[in-house]
Amino acid sequence: MKLTPNVQLLLADWRGVYIPQNFCQGFDLSQWQGIPDWAIDCCRKGPEEEDYWDAWTEILDSAVWTAPDGRVFTLHQDGDLWAVCYDTMSAEEREAFGFEEA
Question: Where along the chain do its domains lie?
């Protein structure tokens, strides 16, 4: 079985304010747990939607994807949008993302 990397680039920062919309329109969100339907609907409408950024924050804070091998990934945005499995990240990966050591 090929393992999924601990850190995966989902969307590059050149997409700018459209990252939330692109994520909600371009990914199979049925594979992500914890995302409220209202937030998906809002982000799909685009950055002109009044609650767009609140919806995106909700998605970033709640989305979880479980890989076939059981590792749990969450979203992380620092310009680029990433899926990260914090629990199995190496010290170098954690340092590169600015996560503090536990």
Answer: 7-97
pLDDT in 10s for each residue of the chain, 102 residues: 455 789 999 999 999 999 999 999 999 999 999 999 999 999 999 999 999 999 999 999 999 999 999 999 999 999 999 999 999 888 888 888 887 654
- Alpha-carbon gap, residue 64 to 77, rounded angstroms: 14
- The tokens describing 76, both together, are 């992380």
- Distance, in Å, from the CA atom of 62 to the CA atom of 29, rounded to the nearest integer, reads 12
SS3 55: helix
85 CB-near residues (< 8 Å, 6+ apart): 6, 7, 67, 71, 72, 73, 74
